[in-house]
Fold:
Amino acid sequence: MHASEEQTLKKAVSDATLACIHEAEVFLPSDVKAAIEAAYEAETDSVARGELDNIRANIREAERLDIPLCQDTGIIVIYLTVPHNLSITESELKDAVYDGLRRATNSVPLRPNAVDPITRKNSGDNTGEAIPPIHMREGPELTITVLPKGAGSENVSRIGMLLPSQPEEIPSFIAETVLLAGGRPCPPIVVGVGIGGTFDLAAALAKEALLLPIDSMDPFEAGICDAINELGIGPMGLGGKTTALAVKVKKAHCHTASLPVAVNIQCWACRRATRTVVV
Structure:
């Protein structure tokens, strides 16, 4: 690839990253908006219905004013699919993504959230050591997916190393995690679950599950969602019918002696967006 072609590709990746972040921060996906509308229509508790109506107004105003849905614009988690014959190095690809994130910090704008874990010094541009996390896999097209993850929901994440004899305990572990979280993750929430793999893979799967559409659930997911909604935590933790909009599960084979289960909760603003980079 000629230097000019390489620069063109890097700019395309940076531009797509910027556009993707802007979309995710301002416009809630249609399936999530539909789930919130359904929860509003089904709610009979006046306080819960009022909170859901506030959320609906928040969504409309963010779109109208072209501003982020939430003041916590999160840590931007990045997922890339990369064609095997792409003539750009992994390092250069990541640099282009970082450039797009830095530009988005200024233009969307994003709150600078990336700090050193010990000194708490803020980088000022949402980048830092190993941040943003970038997950890469091979695919037919070069695509960029962003998942903004706020701290309120991230901080109530949980992982358990269950015994291999305890698969029937998985639903109760998930429901208990939501109960312990209470109103802190700004419900109604989306619950991402990773089952199997290793300690770290289960956590990664739980986060990836938050990228799945929430307009359908299989019987296992729906059963857990029903159990969570029976807790009565409700919108913003003030009671009501809907604590979880959906539960989404991703699985991996695991060691015969292990059963990792990870839960990664997302707030009502289940933000995500994808862009394809034409190369």
Summary: The first strand starts at residue 75 and ends at 82. The longest helix spans residues 3-26. The chain has two domains: 3-27+67-149+272-277, 30-61+152-266.
